[in-house]
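Q: What changes when nicotinamide-adenine-dinucleotide is included in the input?
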Amino acid sequence: MQKRIGIIMHGVTGRMGMNQHLIRSILEIRRQGGVALKDGSWLMPDPILIGRNAEKIAALAKQHGIGRWGVDLKKALESKEDSVFFDAASTQLRPKLLKQAIKAGKHVYCEKPVSTTLAEAVDMYKAAKKAKVKHGVVQDKLWLPGMLKLAKLRDEGFFGKILSVRGEFGYWVFEGDTQSGQPPAQRPSWNYRKQDGGGIILDMLCHWRYVLDNLFGEVKAVSCLGATHIPFRWDEGGRKYKATSDDAAYATFKLAGGAIAHFNSSWTVRVRRDDLLTLQVDGTKGSAVAGLRGCRIQSYAKTPKPVWNPDIAQPINFFDGWEEVPDGNYDNAFKVQWEMFLRHVAGEGPFRWGLLEGAKGVQLAELGLKSWRQKKWLDVPRLKA
Ligand SMILES: NC(=O)c1ccc[n+]([C@@H]2O[C@H](COP(=O)([O-])OP(=O)(O)OC[C@H]3O[C@@H](n4cnc5c(N)ncnc54)[C@H](O)[C@@H]3O)[C@@H](O)[C@H]2O)c1
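A: The predicted holo structure follows.
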């Protein structure tokens, strides 16, 4: 038996909305016949695409064989046909839209960051709690194969006591000066304008918050140094603009349990590592280096014993002595979280990754920016549930 669930999808002409949420998640769930429920029935998402530009949204709907689309969000929110509102549009717009949806009694699911300020994020959480609607925030990295492998190693006690976590994230984002022969930029230009909700600290510290909290210990304090390494970029229309937000962040975190994490996040770095994101975890009994999908480990017994001698060529190949963790059966990380959220809306199972968790991400980003401004370490107070 099939049960229909109507979902208003907003912001799906964008990079994340279209690729990860519409195509890789919702349409893929439809293709597999829905989300399996405990009673043997299948929950089938029925999306309606809502956007500002009728032409664009109609073309997208047509391309994917979606019958329902529109430009009137207010009308969509009033409709009884759809019980879930999803938003992957601009971060700055999100609090207003989510609050409208909550007011209309919709369950809400959205991209991160949930807002650009902690005050707005907490406000949304309180509104959802009061209205008793279900809520979720994208925390996709938790379901990446590389992170799932790290979680398993941690649960098996492979690391012993975890001492430190080193995160390297980033790649070169082209400035977009196509008239001078550069390739077009591969990220939207708003990312580099503070006034439009941009900046790598706001973007990435939200991710690092849930990765650290869930895998290695709650974040207790932060010290962050940001930078705007590239002062000018070119937008989607080929116009030169001033980069007003940070494009790199060098942040250190103290975690509950004593581990120390340091993450370099940058859109101005060239990649010489296994993946766009790598996490090295060092523990008393062993270490691991995970990328988005792969993960390599080195146990205490396999740890080499180097001696400092710059007068001879390094006799140890440090890339040897690491072992690949075997692959399991992994699905797209965004889709996995969507399936859990939809089951939760259908009344099956708890869902930990709601607006309070989303607010924690914004809290860390806000404190990261403050730490940079004030040039000091800041404690991360626990948010009230
Ligand atoms: N989970 C992740 O890893 C991840 C990665 C990238 C971006 N994001 C988040 O996803 C969101 C979208 O990012 P993106 O990279 O897809 O950006 P994008 O610029 O490609 O897409 C933005 C979308 O919002 C729509 N939009 C913008 N302003 C609007 C307005 N005033 N009214 C209605 N619609 C409007 C655009 O038409 C487009 O559909 C952001 O909040 C971003 O932080 C999350």
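Observations recorded in class: The pocket of nicotinamide-adenine-dinucleotide is lined by residues 11, 13-17, 51-52, 88-91, 93, 111-113, 138, 140, 188, 190, 203 (CB under 6 Å).
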